[in-house]
Amino acid sequence: MKLVDTITIAELTEMAEKMYGQLVKAVVDTQKNLLVVDGELHSDQEAYLLEKGSDQKNLWGINLYPEKFGKKDFIEFDSMINIRPSQKNMSKSVEDQKIRRQIFEIVEAKVAK
């Protein structure tokens, strides 16, 4: 598991190959602009950020597909930690478009070719 300021596609590709082959699990803190990658489960990354002082309401699980960098489907919004009836997010996706934009912006700022 790694909290990143910046990370390259080559690094993400290496992580994907070691873990799932095509994807890297990640959790984003939309309030603190944090990105944690390379955990086996989104819930592990979520727990790590909670220990660092993040609020659960700001943590969203995503998957990154290094081979799709630069394309819309580079980020997949699919994680059990995203199911939050209290925030009106009833699925594993991220339903709020504002939060999706925040996630895109954070990932775009931290992932480099």
Task: Present the secondary structure layout.
Layout: E1 2-3, E2 7-8, H1 9-19, E3 24-29, E4 34-37, H2 42-51, E5 59-64, E6 75-76, H3 97-110, E7 111-112
Parallel strand pairs: 2-7
Antiparallel strand pairs: 1-4, 3-4, 3-5, 5-6
Order of helices and strands: EEHEEHEEHE
Count up the helices: 3
Shape: globular
Major beta sheet, strand line-up: 1-4-3-5-6
**Fraction of residues in H or I helices:** 25-40%
Secondary-structure content class: alpha+beta
Low-confidence stretches: none
How many structural domains in the coordinates?
A: 1
Mean pLDDT: 97
Biggest beta sheet summary: 5 strands, antiparallel
Strand tally:
7
User: What is the beta-strand fraction?
Assistant: 15-25%
Description:
With 113 residues, this protein is an alpha+beta fold. 31% of the residues lie in helices and 21% in strands. The strands form 2 sheets. It has a 5-stranded antiparallel sheet, sandwiched between helices. A two-stranded parallel sheet has the order 2-7.
Descriptive keywords:
113 residues, alpha+beta, five-stranded antiparallel β-sheet, two-stranded parallel sheet, 3 helices, 21% strand
Condensed summary:
The chain is of the alpha+beta class. The chain contains three helices and seven strands. The protein starts with a strand and ends with a strand.
